[in-house]
Recover the amino acids of this structure.
């Protein structure tokens, strides 16, 4: 079958790389894609939220399966757009409909969902500019640090963690009254701070059954020792060494099952990935967020470990026969290290020539913010490429990624040299 992947990051290169290995994969398209996808598929110069252009491309290229990478098109209702269109309604879309995409699109919606279905999470209250005074009072009842979350999508920047009460009040005002994150912070969720180590769990569902993919841990901060500004992710490891069988069973019983059951009870159709961000508090998993897509760079370590045909899995999800599939996972550990443009996540330059790509032998290079220009691969974004390796242990895998990086260079290249430091 002909397949279209929407997105342009390392995640989408990994999806394309994995599906290209399937005998079921016909012509493979990526919109808009990057230099990595261009080498294995056909890139289409279409934005992921230009639904009319996507429709045209799907019809013109006889596409039967659309895999949605990022959250924006899902939250904007791309799956509903397909279902409502006579010409598109039989095409399989991997990614939930708009109603369920609110799990990522609105923090308050996600918290209410968790409360309704008894899913462990931090205590919270939400506020708008009409009751900002009550928000200040609520903050006074909490202990530092204070966690403020813009309700809507804010490109990963909408969560603030503050140590000082007066600073927390000032930020609450700035979000609600001064629209710090625009409409996204018209409502703010204030949460109890959870103290523990983070990990992510990835679930596939067809709306009836589910399969759990390997866990992963990402490193979000720009600086070593997890310091500095938040980024999309600077590296990842799978599996997570501290996720024991007993802890994974807890996650499945206390979080995954009630989540999938909750979607059914609430009548929220869901064919796609559920990315569950967790904090391990003592021995208990608590949910900090849902995303309605795969993580990036978590995909770059989770999918390489998947031995089962990904196209077959997607077909089973679309046909609601996921229960008939068994998922095989490579026992080895996988790690990825992100190479980023100097200055990221703030201002950075583009168009730097990336050297040494042909000399990487022991790792897989997933392109992200990179494109072809006059026959050369040049930087085109903040996160430029993810260098994934396997090893018997995560330490061995990390070592391989760092050795591969020795071959690679571009002007002002930066990466964290401490991925895995906290494990
Ligand atoms: P989110 O966008 O909800 O994933 O939040 C971004 C980051 O903020 C998370 O990855 C956590 O590191 C941190 N965080 C979010 N909620 C909490 C919480 N309740 N307690 C402690 N840290 C949190
Ligand atoms: N790496 C975190 C995310 O994809 O949201």
């Amino acid at each position: 079958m002909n397949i279209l992947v929407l997105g342009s990051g390392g995640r989408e290169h990994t999806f394309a790389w994995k599906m290209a290995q399937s005998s079921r994969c016909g012509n493979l398209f990526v919109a808009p894609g990057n230099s990595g996808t261009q080498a294995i598929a056909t890139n289409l110069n279409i934005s992921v939220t230009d639904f009319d252009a996507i429709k045209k491309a799907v019809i013109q290229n006889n596409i039967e399966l659309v895999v949605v990478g990022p959250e924006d098109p899902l939250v904007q209702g791309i799956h509903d757009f397909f279902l409502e269109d006579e010409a598109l309604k039989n095409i399989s879309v991997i990614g939930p409909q708009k109603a369920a995409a609110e799990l990522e699109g609105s923090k308050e919606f996600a918290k209410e969902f968790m409360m309704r279905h008894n899913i462990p999470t931090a205590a919270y209250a939400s506020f708008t500019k009409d009751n900002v005074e009550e928000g200040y009072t609520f903050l006074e009842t909490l202990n530092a640090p204070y966690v403020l979350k813009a309700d809507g999508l804010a490109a990963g920047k909408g969560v603030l963690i503050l140590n000082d009460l007066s600073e927390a009040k000032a930020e609450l005002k700035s979000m609600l009254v001064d629209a710090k994150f625009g409409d996204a912070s018209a409502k703010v969720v204030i949460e109890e701070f959870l103290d523990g180590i983070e990990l992510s769990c990835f679930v596939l569902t067809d709306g009836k059954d589910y399969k759990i993919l390997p866990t992963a841990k990402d490193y979000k901060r720009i600086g070593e020792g997890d310091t500095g500004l938040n980024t999309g992710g600077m590296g990842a490891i799978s599996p997570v060494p501290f996720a024991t069988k007993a802890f994974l069973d807890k996650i499945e019983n206390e979080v995954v099952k009630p989540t999938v059951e909750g979607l059914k009870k609430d009548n929220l159709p869901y064919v796609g990935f559920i990315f569950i961000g967790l904090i391990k508090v003592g021995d208990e998993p608590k949910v900090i967020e849902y995303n309605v897509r795969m993580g990036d760079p978590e995909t770059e370590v989770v999918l390489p470990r998947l031995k089962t045909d990904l196209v077959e899995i997607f077909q089973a999800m679309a046909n609601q026969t996921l229960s008939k599939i068994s998922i095989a996972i490579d026992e080895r550990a996988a790690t990825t290290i992100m190479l980023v443009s100097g200055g990221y996540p703030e201002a950075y330059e583009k168009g730097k020539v990336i050297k040494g790509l042909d000399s990487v032998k022991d790792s897989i290079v997933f392109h992200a913010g990179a494109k072809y220009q006059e026959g050369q691969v040049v930087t085109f974004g903040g996160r430029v490429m993810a260098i994934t390796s396997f090893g018997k242990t995560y330490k061995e895998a990390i070592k391989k990624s760092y050795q591969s990086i020795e071959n690679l260079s571009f002007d002002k290249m930066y990466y964290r040299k401490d991925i895995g430091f906290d494990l």
Notes: The first strand starts at residue 2 and ends at 7. Residues 203 and 274 are 5 Å apart (CA to CA). The chain has 13 helices and 23 strands. Residues 122, 147, 149, 159, 161, 191, 193-194, 198, 220, 277, 288-289 surround adenosine monophosphate (ligand 1) (CB under 6 Å).
